[in-house]
Every structure is written in structure tokens, then in C-alpha cells.
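Review the following:
>
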Amino acid sequence: MIKTIIRTGLIAGVIAVLGLGFIAPANAASKGEKVVFLTKFVSEETTLNVLPGGYTYGWNYLTSATKIDGKPGKVEFLGVVNYKNGSGPFEGFVTVTLDNGSILGLTVDGQGLSLAKGSGTADARFGGSIKVISGTGDFKKAQGMGTMTGSRASALGSPVAMKFNLTLKK
């Protein structure tokens, strides 16, 4: 019973965070430049520890190609997870480096929810908030915030599709 209540609460929380990805940037767009970019992260390196009771924690370094306003670049995500039964908090740093050398640094704070049966980490959904650290070139003096949403079909460490919604002020 307690497990069902916790899982239901977690599902409601992730749905609320995912909903922000479609609401917050639209409301904030009038106060800055709206930037949206998509990624298909691939895990390059990871250290994950698994403990009895369904606990998984550790870090993951993921990379992806992307485009922002038609400009190609690379995205790096250094994330840490602290999951129980495949769900729980994650946080980390995202670095966007455009091919022209412009860099945008972001922090991420979110929740992951595994829809897999048992304690697996497959069929996961993600939602979180983003805050701009700073930037160079096209992103010089950038400030802002936004949301990210995403999903992963397989276990932790497999490819992750993400959508980043930012409102940037320069």
C-alpha cells in the first residue's frame, strides 16, 4: 500500500514537471529569446552502483549532436542519479558547444520515472528544470532558465531522447 502511494505520488510529480516543459517557456518567452533543441544522448562512460533494495546511484557522461537556430553543435551531459526501483532524482551539468565555438553551460535538476515492472530502469520518463550558468560567443552573458523532458526505452545507460526548452536573456 505504501509503495503504491509513493509510486503514485512520484508519477504525479513527474507528470507535473513534464507539463512545465510545455507551459513555462511559452509564458516566459516575451521576456527573452526562446531556444528549443533536441538531443539523442548516447552514454559514453558511466559508473553505476547497485545495492540491495532496488537502489542504483552513480554518474553517466552522455553526448549528442544538436542544432540551435540551425547552427550545428554537440551537447554533453554529465549527470548523477540516485534511483530506487528505477525512479528518483537526477542532476547534472549540460554543455552545448556549437560548431562556431559558442558555449552554453546549464545546470539540470530533475526526476526520472521508470515505468518498467519491478526494479528495472527501462521505459523511463524524465522531467526537470534548467538554469543557465553562462556562455560565450552566441551565448555571451546569457542568463535564463527552462525545462527539459525526455524518455529512455531501455535500461539506465542506454540512449535518451531529450527536449530542452530555454528562455535566454543576454
Notes: Confidence is low (pLDDT under 50) at residues 1-30. The first strand starts at residue 33 and ends at 51. The CA atoms of residues 23 and 160 lie 22 Å apart.
